[in-house]
């Protein structure tokens, strides 16, 4: 895959490294000439110095033949312009923009640009970490309307020893996966839960707290 | 549109403040937004509108300026991408009936026309006037 990445800093560096490790061809666009030199010395990427929202710079970077573009500059307006230009003028099939203001995620979507924001994930992680130690991760999905949570079941959890069909979990929640002895199982009604099982829960923000309490038995 | 318009002007530099002063003077309700409150010094003593200090690419700032009530939004900051984003947000998220954006780069103007944004490009406008003036001189030379 041929990937264009517009941005700088550590985000850019590690994105490049990951794409390269997977065998993709990477071109970097950056406004800062010193950073361009640094990146080109450390990574096997093509580096173009300039403004990624300038059509001439995108053209020079080979936007016409690119499979994807990722815009991770610190400015939402630039990331939007880059992705729109790449799609409209250069027909890049996949464009992804970083949004710094989480409110912009919804707006970018209505403008036809796929975006991601790191803010809600960080906030959820902090909130959940402080509430319960067994919760190892939490990812919001579907613009924050769905939560995906991993929970380790302790021996005193009220659901341990019970089959899924016996559980009275709140509506709109699901135990999607059970991880046991290094294996992932998609459970059925007859699957029994055991202490030490790691379960992946799908919840909605509205019922997230009650579902967690039902599986852990803790009141928070 | 009614005779008294609610106008949001984004960017209160030379162009933005000129428009804000002129539209306020004509009796329209004006809100000027700028990221730097020193820009409001460009507003005249007679300016009777509001001032909102903040980054117009932040949705909360546009809400504070009551953009949902606007009849007209004019984006005049010195950054093309800010103007283009504000214009699109005004249309899509706030359903503002008329939105104008200043765009310096004529190559970007073409793309955003395709997105249905009314843009004014000072570079093209000035070039046009220059060429017309040159054309007049050439015709006078022929006569």
Describe the protein.
- The complex is a heterodimer of chains A (220) and B (143).
- With 220 residues, chain A is an alpha/beta fold.
- The mean pLDDT of chain A is 89.
- Chain A folds into two domains: 115 residues, Rossmann fold, CATH 3.40.50.720; 96 residues, Regulator of K+ conductance, C-terminal domain (Alpha-Beta Plaits, 2-Layer Sandwich).
- In chain A, strand 9 and strand 10 form a beta hairpin.
- Chain A has a six-stranded parallel beta sheet, sandwiched between helices. A five-stranded antiparallel beta sheet of chain A has the order 7-8-11-9-10.
- Helices cover 33% and strands 26% of the residues of chain A.
- Chain A starts with a strand and ends with a helix.
- Chain B is built from five helices and six strands.
- Chain B is globular and about 60 Å long.
- Chain B has one domain: 3-Layer(aba) Sandwich (Rossmann fold).
- The model of chain B has no long low-confidence stretch (mean pLDDT 93).
- The chains are: A alpha/beta (220), B alpha/beta (143).
Number of strands of chain B: 6
Q: Which structural class matches the secondary elements of chain A?
A: alpha/beta
Largest binding interface between chains:
A-B, 20 and 21 residues
**What's the SSE pattern of chain B?**
EHEEHEHEHEH
Distance between the termini of chain A: 47 Å
Quick one: overall form of chain B? globular
The CATH homologous superfamily of chain B is called NAD(P)-binding Rossmann-like Domain
Radius of gyration of chain A: 22 Å
The rounded distance between the terminal residues' Cα atoms of chain B is 47 Å
Q: Uncertain regions of chain B: pLDDT < 50 for 5+ in a row? A: none
* Number of helical regions of chain A: 7
Helix content of chain B: 40-55%
Oligomer: heterodimer
Named CATH architecture of the largest domain in chain A: 3-Layer(aba) Sandwich
Q: How many alpha or pi helices of chain B?
A: 5
Major beta sheet summary of chain A: 6 strands, parallel
């Amino acid at each position: 895959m041929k990937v264009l990445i517009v941005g700088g800093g550590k985000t850019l560096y590690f994105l490049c490294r990951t794409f390269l490790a997977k065998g993709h061809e990477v071109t970097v666009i950056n406004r800062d000439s010193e950073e361009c030199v640094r990146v080109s010395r450390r990574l096997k990427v093509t580096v173009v110095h300039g403004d990624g929202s300038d059509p001439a710079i995108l053209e020079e970077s080979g936007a016409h033949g690119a499979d994807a573009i990722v815009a991770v500059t610190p400015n939402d307006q630039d990331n939007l312009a880059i992705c729109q230009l790449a799609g409209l003028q250069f027909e890049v099939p996949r464009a992804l923009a970083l949004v710094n203001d989480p409110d912009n995620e919804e707006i970018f979507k209505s403008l036809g640009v796929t975006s991601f924001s790191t803010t809600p994930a960080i906030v959820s992680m902090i909130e959940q970490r402080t509430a319960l130690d067994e919760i190892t991760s939490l990812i919001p999905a579907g613009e924050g309307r769905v939560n995906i949570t991993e929970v380790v079941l302790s021996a005193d959890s009220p659901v341990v020893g019970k089959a899924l069909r016996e559980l009275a979990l709140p509506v709109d929640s699901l135990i999607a996966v059970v991880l046991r002895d290094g294996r992932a199982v998609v459970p059925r009604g007859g699957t029994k839960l055991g202490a030490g099982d790691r379960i992946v829960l799908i919840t909605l923000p509205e019922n997230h707290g009650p579902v967690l309490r039902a599986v852990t038995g803790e009141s928070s | 549109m009614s005779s008294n318009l609610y106008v949001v002007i984004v960017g209160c530099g030379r162009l933005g403040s000129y428009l804000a002063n002129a539209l306020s003077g004509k009796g329209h309700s004006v809100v000027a937004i700028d990221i730097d409150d020193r820009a409001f010094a460009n507003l005249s003593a007679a300016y009777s509108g509001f001032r909102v200090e903040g980054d117009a690419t932040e949705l909360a700032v546009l809400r504070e300026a009551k953009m949902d009530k606007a009849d007209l939004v004019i984006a005049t900051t010195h950054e093309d991408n800010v103007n283009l984003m504000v214009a699109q947000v005004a249309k899509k998220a706030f359903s503002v009936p008329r939105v104008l954006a200043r765009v310096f780069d004529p190559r970007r103007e073409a793309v955003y026309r395709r997105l249905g944004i009314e843009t004014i490009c000072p570079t093209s406008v000035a070039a046009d006037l220059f060429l017309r003036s040159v054309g007049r001189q050439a015709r006078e030379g022929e006569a």
